[in-house]
Each structure stands twice: as C-alpha cells, then as structure tokens.
Known about the structure:
- By secondary structure, the protein is α/β, with parallel strands linked by helices.
- The chain has one domain: Ribonuclease Z/Hydroxyacylglutathione hydrolase-like (Metallo-beta-lactamase, Chain A), CATH 3.60.15.10.
- The protein is built from eight helices and 16 strands.
- The protein has helices spanning 44-53, 92-98, 116-119, 140-147, 149-154, 157-173, 225-228, 242-258, and strands at 14-19, 22-33, 39-40, 61-71, 74-78, 108-110, 135-139, 177-180, 186-188, 191-195, 204-210, 213-218, 235-236, 262-265, 274-279, 282-287.
- It has a seven-stranded mixed β-sheet with strand order 1-2-4-5-6-7-8.
- A hairpin with a 2-residue loop joins β9 (186-188) and β10 (191-195).
- The longest helix is centred in the middle third of the chain and has 17 residues, at 157-173.
- The protein is globular, with a radius of gyration of 18 Å.
- It starts with 13 loop residues before the first strand and ends in a 7-residue tail after the last strand.
- Bound molecules: zinc ion.
- Zinc ion is lined by residues 115, 117-118, 220, 266-267.
Amino acid sequence: MNSFPNFFAKARSCYQVKVGDIAICAINDGFDYLAFTDIVSNDRDLCQRLHENEFRSVPPLLTINCFLIRSQDRLALIDAGYPTPTKTSGKLIEHLDSLGIQPADIDTILMTHMHADHSAGLLDAEERPTFPNAKVFLHKDELAYWLDEGAFARASQVGQDEFRLVRRVVRAYGERIRQLDAEAGQIFPGVRLVETPGHTPGHAAWLVESGSESLLVWGDIIHFPAIQFALPDTCVVYDVDANAAADARKKILAFAAERKLLVAGSHLDFPSFGHVIASHTGYRFVPEVWHPTE
Length: 294
Ligand SMILES: [Zn+2]
C-alpha cells in the first residue's frame, strides 16, 4: 500500500454543506489508529464482527475531523486538530490554506472537549497560540476537570501528559479562553452548545441553526461507527465516566433520530454528515449523499 503512487495528493480533504445561511465545511485533519482492546463491552467479539462486517480496516481507523463555520462574515472552527510526529494527522492548517483561510482569520474556536486529538492543534511548534485572534470556548466543567489537581494525580502517565498539554493551552490563550454552559445561548451567530458530559466531564456538541435548518456536530459520541450506533451502550477506554458517556450517547442519538437532524462528528467517517435512524435496539447511521450546495 505504501508504494501506491499518490497521484491525487493535492486533492484537499474539505467538504461543504449549507445550513440555512451558514456554510459548514468538514475538514479532515488526518487519522489515527484504534485497537479492539479500546472497546469496553461484555461482548468484544461481537463488536469486532460488526466492525469487520462493514469491510472496515484492521486495526480500526480513527478519522479526525474539524469543522469550519462561516456565519455573518465570521469564521469559527469546531476543534483544532491533532499535529503528531507520525504526521498521519495535523493537516488542518494546510487544508485551511487551500481554502484561502489563514489561522489569523478564525475569530472563534468551539471545543467539543480537550483531549489531545481535538486540542493539540491549538498550539504551534513553538507552543504559541496557532490562532492569534481566536477566543476558545469550552464547557466550564471541562476547564475545571483539566485544572483539577486530584484528577491530574489520578491520571496515568500518558493521561498526565494530556493534562499538561491542556494547561499549556490555557496559559498560552490566557483571557481568550472562555468557559460556558448550555445557558449561554448562541455564542457565535447561529451556534449554541449542547451538553453531552461523560466522555469527559464537559464534553459538548454544537448545534448550528439557521432558518428552518439545523446541524448537530458532536465530538466523541462515536469512535467505532460500525459498533456504537448499533450498540450504543458500548464504550471506549478513553471515556472518563463510561456510564455517563453511554447515557449521553443514547440521549443524543435519540434526539437526532426523533428530530431527523443532520449530524456530523469528529470521528465519523469523513465527511461525516448524515442522519440517525432508530433500528432494532439501537440506531443506524445513514451518510448524507452528495448534492450541490449552489
Ligand atoms: Zn477524540
């Protein structure tokens, strides 16, 4: 596979949809790998079969998506990507550039949560803010968790590295870090936070609304698309509180299915837009088919 000539390497990983007057572009930051041992379930074999039945790669691929939002001449980003030494991810800035957008043009960053695959891109290689003009919005319980000394002490060594990263981000952005909860309403034109705690204590989704249209963008509600829609009780080892994460998943999937909402997610297969349909004891994801945005 490595020797396959990458003829179309310049093709950019960006895909646009419209929600009323708001333009939203899914930008693929790259990918990482998961393992079946990341799954928390009493029937991991069944989970693995569901994954493989969809012809998905082994080890399982973790798609990493960010979302660019243009509303009333302003630009927001949902999450900031994951620059890593392996370079399989961290392509957000390069892809923004291909759209003619520089980091300084972004005025708002809306965080789903602060795990490294969503927040590491907030700092550049010199540990300065990648986005010099942006305010960074996150749920108040998320900020409290990452600054909590008890939570830091209880974390594994790798976990503690993540706490250190978040603390460096908080220091680098200073006053431009803004904490909020669902009461805050629309903090960017047409966009408001929906609380989905569990994966992390302040984990959030963002609801985009314009006219009669809407889109719900979630963070880490689903890591394994072939497994967790069908079996929404299935958790991952990265959930800070697995029971709460399962509750949040079931609540948001029911909400999306009942309202026939267009959804998108950080780790749904790029470009990740689609609908959730109730099915048997769980749900099914129906990817949105391409249609022109003009
Ligand atoms: Zn994630």
